[in-house]
Automatic annotation (TrEMBL):
It holds the Pfam family zf-MYND. Keywords: ANK repeat, Metal-binding, Repeat, Zinc, Zinc-finger. PANTHER family: ANKYRIN REPEAT-CONTAINING, PFS DOMAIN-CONTAINING PROTEIN. This is MYND-type domain-containing protein. Residues 285-326 form the MYND-type domain. It comes from the Eukaryota. Gene3D superfamilies: 6.10.140.2220, Ankyrin repeat-containing domain. SMART domains: ANK. Residues 369-384 have a biased composition (Basic residues). Residues 334-384 are annotated as: Disordered. GO terms for molecular function: zinc ion binding.
Length: 384
């Protein structure tokens, strides 16, 4: 390889390009040198050469046929992304690099190789389309995933958040070989429950295909038949609970899909969750989707019977929102019928940890008059 001192400047505005070429000879000599140096991670050499000969030497984009129908995009930007050099990525983008194919490729490489979102955010801030589809752009017919699906598949939640923050569409599907995939189904298949939950909290709308696929993946996982070990039975159960709780799919769709499964393949826990959902009964903690209460088997039911919680902390966290809708049969002391019966039997105040948990007075940390209770006193200001 020629050293920097031996390379003559080929900087000529008519020769430089920000468009991918299919022949190495179509690149300028300076662009060829920078791409070679990037492969060797000689970043200082590239920066010095670009400073001397102009930023256009950073713009070379070369597509290489690596398989029968598969192309690879080679450039300083993609190499810097591959090796995690955010400084070089930033320098190249700020110099005016805007080849969308190479930017997409760099983003995909960054997501695939690391869960650090710095490079991805740089690309997004400099014009990368988070919803770009290489097939629709006429760039790569075999591309079967968009960037959000790649992040979901790898389980990289920070990068998924970065894409969503820049307008990625969680409801965009891709049809490949007659099968329709969405970010939700890709995430469920990979067992990435945290990203699955993120998509639903950020507004993903499960389609009939999504519900069918998620149930299918999860029922297989419960039988130990799903190929991805990350989708264990515990994760699969959480996935179904989250889908029903946050996604709120059509009840008829859920009923038809679960009835479609053979009885021998129905998991009892998923069956119980589904039954409660179809009956309109709480089946998980409203805040965190836990299926059982902490330190006990059953969830703590709100007196209104519309929501349940796994702990007092989740109940308190949700109370400010729920109190507007809570219409439980409470007396003037904020007690449910079950709590009154408990008190009448024991002769004491409402017992904590009963079948029902009162959420009216004191759930938000205030007393009857809306004042905070003092340390060592309960919400009514009386000594314990």
């Amino acid at each position: 390889m020629e050293s920097q001192s031996e390379v003559e400047s080929s900087h000529n505005s008519s020769e430089t390009t920000n468009v991918a070429v299919h022949s190495w000879d179509d690149l300028t000599e300076g662009q060829q040198c920078c791409i070679n140096w990037a492969g060797d991670q000689d970043w200082d050499l590239i920066k010095g050469y670009a400073k001397e000969h102009g930023p256009e030497v950073l713009f070379g984009v070369y597509t290489v046929l690596v398989d029968e129908d598969e192309w690879s995009v080679v450039s300083v930007l993609t190499a810097a992304s591959q090796y995690g050099n955010a400084e070089m990525v930033k320098l190249t983008l700020e110099a005016g690099f805007d080849n969308k194919e190479a930017m997409f490729w760099a983003a995909g490489i960054s997501i695939f190789n690391s869960d650090n979102s710095t490079i991805l955010r740089l690309l997004l801030e400099h014009g990368l389309d988070p919803n770009m589809d290489l097939r629709f752009e006429g760039l790569w017919e075999k591309c079967s995933k968009n960037l959000l699906m790649v992040a979901a598949e790898k389980g990289h939640i920070d990068q998924a958040i970065a894409l969503l923050d820049h307008g990625a569409n969680m409801n965009k599907t891709m049809a490949v070989n007659g099968n329709v995939y969405s970010p939700l189904t890709v995430t469920a298949s990979c067992g990435a429950h945290d990203i699955f939950r993120l998509f639903l909290t950020r507004g993903a709308i499960p389609t009939t295909d999504d519900v069918f696929d998620v149930f299918g993946y999860c029922l297989k996982a419960c039988k130990g038949e799903h190929p991805n070990p990350s989708l264990s039975r515990d994760v699969a159960i959480k996935m179904v609970a989250t889908l029903l709780h946050l996604g709120k799919p059509d009840s008829d769709v859920v009923r038809d899909i679960y009835n479609y499964a053979e009885p021998s393949r129905r998991d009892p826990t998923i069956f119980n969750i589904t039954k409660h959902y179809l009956q309109g009964r709480p089946f998980c903690c409203y805040v965190c989707e836990a299926l059982t209460a902490k330190e006990r088997d059953k969830l703590l039911m709100c007196p209104c019977r519309n929501v349940a919680y796994c702990s007092r902390s989740c109940q308190v966290k949700h109370w400010r929102e729920h109190k507007v809708h809570c219409r439980g049969p409470l007396n003037e002391r904020g007690e449910s019928e079950a709590m009154v019966k408990k008190r009448s039997k024991t002769g004491k105040g409402a017992a904590a940890g009963g079948a029902d948990v009162g959420v009216a007075e004191g759930a938000d940390g205030t007393g009857k008059n809306g004042k905070k209770g003092k340390k060592g006193k309960n919400s009514r200001g009386k000594k314990k």
